[in-house]
């Protein structure tokens, strides 16, 4: 299954956008104008849920940031510096982290009060240029893994053109900068299973579930980092693989599934992080009685979270709404590890075949 | 009969006691220990000298020297010092010299006008103290500018309060020199007293900018406070006592000397701002016959007159011609000379009166320069041109400053280099003690000081808000100066072509223009 080199195209677009941004400001100053820019507003009043694309998006409201304004001059400078810094990263094929950016600024006499301020400026840059920070080679701490029959081709310096099959290491491979920026070449898998817990991820590898179900396995380790969500999206969009999300049977597990499928309000300014076609596979509240799984009582915080979800626009349809109501009625929750109650291979031999049918 | 006996007792008391009384109670006049005594002696002598010049409109030139006596040095506790002061004042006529310097409570200061000394006491207390502590004699030379002048060596006979002349010498005066020299020894503690003495001299120079004062201290150091102007405040006029300020004793004294043979004449002749018409309406009010002979008034009647005087509402307020405030301009010069502040504002309040004594308050504020920083603000207190250095905490002005809580309204912050000046001028400054160190709480005076402080603070707040806005503007421009070149640099880095960084100077220029237009 050949695939067009999406990463290369993306990198080119990023570079052009950054350069254009710089050029605009340069011209303003050269023409004796105070440079300014419009940034889409990320205030709650400007975030709305779009039924059609099934994700949060930003409205039309913009914030004007002008170097003429004394309150803007510092953040404006920080923004331009951040743009020039990530441009350098992209040019030199280097990657960085949010923390790195915070410290690098000090070398340019651009002082951020704290990392929160520098993180915020990066988010501004994302909104203004409509690229995500991973496009700018700024990556979070990596903690997600991927495993499965997928061949990728690295684009990072030193590994350019090198191809790797993701079954090569039985612990899976970290979804870091190198993997995120790799081209997806080919796969024999026909689905992706996204898993919240490391134990289940390892179980499915050990029990050779990836072979049995022809699946690429991804471990999110809790809420998935944005790089992981991007990768899920690419597997779905570029390789046309259906995606199944498999989490704990509690409101927090549901939230992980929702984030992968519909995105979060926090990242409303970034498109291409959501996978609307992905399906929440479990654990459902109804699975607890159905499979007689060991369970715990819902805590007060769990109940509160479920009640909030009742009002969440992302949770109004199937299968969300009935399951939330069932949780609230049953007042029980269940972890992925609960399957071990019926033997280590129970999930592979019984649960998954039924769910994936 | 009764009152006669009283008077006689009083007289006996007065004769044996003024010198004796103050000898026993010298702490009342500020001579309680060697440190304070040295400070008080210098202060009293200096004030007498300044008065002697000013009352005759002579710009004061005063030389003061303090030296160790007989090889004493400063390490010895309670060393003996020789003190010598020389002024260019009007001088004392030779026949009055012994009394003026050798008899306590004798002097020219019992009439009503604004002078520094009030009790006719200070200078002689200093001499008396010297005599007590070192058994010294005082040498007095004084000339009123005639062909010749006298030099006296004298002591005070404490028991009889009479000068005891030991030596008298005649000098020729070819140069028509006038002035006074006083010279004697006393026990003191200069190392301890030094800070207060120097501060006293500095503040004296501040409030008397027309005076030149030279001081040589026992270590041989010379301090010179130069005059910065030859202008002097107009000398105060003498006035009659105001009815509101009279007590029984005052009336009795006036009765003793009056030539009037009826009460109407008595009232309109001897009191400040009482004419024929006021005299008439007062006597009507008090129910006293117009043609009563003043000398026939008995004690009860005198007491009643004093009471009626206090309650009669139609006396005109005392006028201020008997006062000699420094004036806005002179004070400004004097304070500027010592503090060199960034901002200074002085205000002379309108004359007012308490209990028949006229007073004028002068209030000022200075900011920046050499103004000391004091969390509760520096306070310079003056009364009749004398700096007040002790007991600040008990003073009415300090209380007003401490009670004032709305500083932020005036843009004043604690820790600002800020000083207030309060000068009380009056024929009778309401000191609480003979030591003349702090002003008592009189509602009339308190009101004027409070309003004065508020008024000068408002002026200061205008200066401060302008200063704040200029600083603010400067900080603004500095921010742009810091960041605009960076924006230019980074945008150049970003843009794909290699080229020169654009010039941000036109942008900065437009900011400056905008600031000027909107200043």
How would you briefly describe this protein structure?
The complex is a heterodimer of chains A (357) and B (519). Chain A is α/β, with parallel strands linked by helices.
CATH class of the largest domain in chain B: Alpha Beta
Strand content of chain B: 15-25%
Rg of chain B, Cα atoms, Å: 29 Å
Question: What is the domain total for the residues of chain B?
Answer: 4
> What is the count of helical runs of chain A?
13
- Counting H and I runs of at least 4 residues, what is the number of helices of chain B? 14
Residue stretches of chain A low in confidence (pLDDT < 50, at least 5 long) are none
CATH topology (fold) name of the largest domain in chain A: Dna Topoisomerase Vi A Subunit, Chain: A, domain 2
CATH topology of the largest domain in chain B, by name, is Heat Shock Protein 90
| Spatial separation of the terminal alpha carbons of chain B | 81 Å
Name the average pLDDT of chain A: 89
* Biggest interface pair, counts: A-B, 27 and 21 residues
General shape of chain A: globular
Q: Please summarize the sheet with the most strands of chain A.
A: 6 strands, mixed
SSE string of chain B: HHHEEHHEEEEHEEHHHHHEEEEEHEHH
In CATH, the architecture of the largest domain in chain A is 3-Layer(aba) Sandwich
CATH class of the largest domain in chain A: Alpha Beta
At CATH level 2, the architecture of the largest domain in chain B is 2-Layer Sandwich
Q: Strand sequence of the main sheet of chain A, in spatial order?
A: 10-7-13-12-14-15
Q: CATH homologous superfamily of the largest domain in chain B - what is it? A: Histidine kinase-like ATPase, C-terminal domain
Shape summary of chain B = globular
């Amino acid at each position: 299954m050949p695939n067009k080199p999406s990463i290369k195209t993306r990198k080119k677009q990023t570079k052009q956008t950054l350069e254009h941004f710089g050029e605009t400001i340069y011209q303003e100053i050269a023409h004796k104008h105070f440079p300014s820019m419009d940034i889409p507003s990320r205030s709650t009043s400007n975030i709305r849920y779009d039924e059609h694309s099934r994700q949060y998006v930003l409205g039309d409201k913009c914030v004007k940031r002008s170097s003429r304004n004394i309150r803007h001059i510092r953040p404006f400078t920080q923004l331009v510096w951040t743009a020039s810094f990530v441009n350098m990263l992209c040019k030199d094929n280097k990657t960085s982290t949010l923390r790195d950016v915070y410290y690098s600024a000090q070398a340019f006499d651009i002082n951020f009060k704290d990392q929160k301020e520098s993180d915020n400026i990066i988010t501004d840059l994302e909104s203004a240029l409509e690229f995500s920070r991973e496009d700018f080679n700024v990556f979070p701490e990596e903690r997600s893994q991927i495993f499965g029959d997928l061949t990728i081709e690295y684009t990072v310096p030193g590994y350019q053109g090198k191809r790797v099959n993701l079954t090569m290491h039985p612990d899976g491979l970290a979804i870091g900068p190198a993997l995120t920026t790799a081209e997806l070449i080919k796969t024999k898998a026909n689905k992706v299973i996204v898993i919240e817990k490391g134990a289940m991820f390892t179980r499915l590898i050990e029990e050779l579930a990836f072979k049995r179900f022809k699946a690429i396995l991804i471990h999110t380790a809790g809420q998935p980092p944005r790089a992981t969500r991007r990768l899920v999206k690419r597997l779905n969009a570029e390789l046309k693989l259906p995606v199944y999300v498999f989490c704990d049977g509690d409101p927090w597990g549901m939230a992980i599934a929702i984030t992968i499928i519909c995105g979060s309000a926090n990242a409303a300014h970034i498109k291409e992080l959501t996978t609307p076609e992905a399906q929440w596979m479990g654990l459902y509240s109804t699975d607890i009685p159905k499979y007689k799984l060991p369970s715990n009582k819902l805590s007060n915080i769990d109940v509160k979270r479920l009640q909030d979800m009742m009002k969440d626009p992302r949770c109004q349809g199937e299968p969300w709404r009935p399951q939330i109501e069932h949780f609230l009625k049953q007042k029980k929750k269940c972890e992925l590890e609960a399957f071990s109650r019926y033997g280590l291979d129970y999930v592979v031999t019984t649960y998954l075949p039924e769910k994936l049918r | 009969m009764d009152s006669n006996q009283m008077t006689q007792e009083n007289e006996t008391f007065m004769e044996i006691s003024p010198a004796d009384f103050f000898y026993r109670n010298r702490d009342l006049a500020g001579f309680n220990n060697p440190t304070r005594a040295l400070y008080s002696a210098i202060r009293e002598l200096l004030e007498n000298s300044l008065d002697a010049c000013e009352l005759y409109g002579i710009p004061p030139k005063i030389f003061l020297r303090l030296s160790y006596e007989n090889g004493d040095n400063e390490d010895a506790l309670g060393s003996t010092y020789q003190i010598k002061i020389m002024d260019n004042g009007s001088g004392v006529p030779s026949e009055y010299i012994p009394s003026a310097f050798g008899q306590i409570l004798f002097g020219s200061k019992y009439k009503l006008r604004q002078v520094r000394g009030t009790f006719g006491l200070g200078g002689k207390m200093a001499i008396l103290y010297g005599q007590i502590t070192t058994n010294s004699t005082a040498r007095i030379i004084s000339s009123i500018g005639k062909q010749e002048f006298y030099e006296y060596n004298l002591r005070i006979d404490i028991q009889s309060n009479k000068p005891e002349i030991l030596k008298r010498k005649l000098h020729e005066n070819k140069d028509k020199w006038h002035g006074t020299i006083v010279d004697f020894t006393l026990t003191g503690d200069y190392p301890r007293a030094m800070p207060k003495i120097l501060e006293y001299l500095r503040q004296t120079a501040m409030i008397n900018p027309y005076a030149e004062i030279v001081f040589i201290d026992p270590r041989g150091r010379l301090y010179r406070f130069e005059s910065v102007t030859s202008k002097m405040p107009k000398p105060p006029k003498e006035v009659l006592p105001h009815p509101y300020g009279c007590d029984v004793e005052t009336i009795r004294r006036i009765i003793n000397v009056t030539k009037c043979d009826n009460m109407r004449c008595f009232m309109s002749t001897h009191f400040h701002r009482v004419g024929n018409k006021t005299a008439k309406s007062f006597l009507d009010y008090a129910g006293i016959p117009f043609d009563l002979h003043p000398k026939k008034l008995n004690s009860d009647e005198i007491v009643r007159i004093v009471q009626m005087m206090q309650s009669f509402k139609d006396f005109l307020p005392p006028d201020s011609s008997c006062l000699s405030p420094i004036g806005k301009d002179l004070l400004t010069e004097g304070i500027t000379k010592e503090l060199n502040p960034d901002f200074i504002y002085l205000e002379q309040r309108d004359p007012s009166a308490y209990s028949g004594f006229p007073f004028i308050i002068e209030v000022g504020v200075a900011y920046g320069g050499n103004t000391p920083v004091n969390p509760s603000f520096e306070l310079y207190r003056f009364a009749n041109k004398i700096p007040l250095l002790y007991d600040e905490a008990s003073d009415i002005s300090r209380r007003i400053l401490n009670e004032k809580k709305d500083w932020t309204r005036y843009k004043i912050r604690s820790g600002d280099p800020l000083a207030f000046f309060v000068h009380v001028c009056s024929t009778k400054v309401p000191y609480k003690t003979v030591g003349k160190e702090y002003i008592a709480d009189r509602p009339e005076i308190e009101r004027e000081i409070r309003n004065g402080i508020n008024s000068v603070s408002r002026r200061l707040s205008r200066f401060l808000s302008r200063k704040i806005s200029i600083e603010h503007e400067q900080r603004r421009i500095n921010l742009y100066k810091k960041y605009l070149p960076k924006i230019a640099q980074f945008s150049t880095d970003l843009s794909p072509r290699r080229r020169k960084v654009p010039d941000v100077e036109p942008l900065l220029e437009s900011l400056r223009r905008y600031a000027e237009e909107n200043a």
